[in-house]
Amino acid sequence: MNEKLPPCADAGVERISLKDGDYFFPAEPAIKADSLRTKSLLHRFNHTDPIETGTRLRLMKELLPECGEGVSVTTPFHCSRGYNIRAGKNFYCNVGCVILDLTDVTIGNDVQLGPQVNIYTVSHPINPGHRSTGIEYVQPVTIGDRVWIGGKSVILPGVKIGNDAVIAAGSVVTRDIPDRVIAGGVPARVLKHIQ
Q: Which stretches make up the Maltose/galactoside acetyltransferase domain (predicted)?
């Protein structure tokens, strides 16, 4: 990872359309305003009565406009932007999930996230001098079709998970996972191939 800093903090980002490896400052006014918009939507979504299905569906579509049909998100749910999450049909997100989507999170069809799964696209520089400036950087996450991610798993920035993969509960996925495998552990590794 290149740890070259941008020339100055006010070289800022107007709209949150960060791409792989982009650096940004969370305190930028445009970023803070966009974050506040998302927090307001999340507050309404997470505090809507479960029997108010029409209101919940409208808020979910406003929060996650790039998701396919049959998407179900159980509250509480948290994300950074929402509009950077692109999920296919029949995506299920169980209770307590967190998706830090400051760049693209691409989720295939028929994907299931267990309770309290965390997906991160944002990180901090390793160099302490750079980190102390408050700068952060992004890397996208891609999850293939028919993937099941077990509860309390963590998916780190830049990871790609292949089609038909299963991630065991409590795993920390630090690198790419191929198609049709069961992976687990800290850090996650391939445990078994799926026939």
A: 19-69
pTM recorded for the entire structure: 0.89
Over residues 58-82, the pLDDT tens digits come to 999 999 999 999 999 999 999 999 9
- Please give the tally of structural domains in the chain: 1
Reduce the DSSP state of residue 44 to 3 states and report it.
helix
* CA triple 98-180-195, angle to 5 deg: 145
1 in a structural domain: no
Which tokens is 114 given? 């267990």
Q: Is 193 a catalytic residue?
A: no
Residue range(s) defining the domain that contains residue 98: 10-193
- Name 67's bridge partners: 87
Active-site residue, from 43, 47, 124, 193 = 124
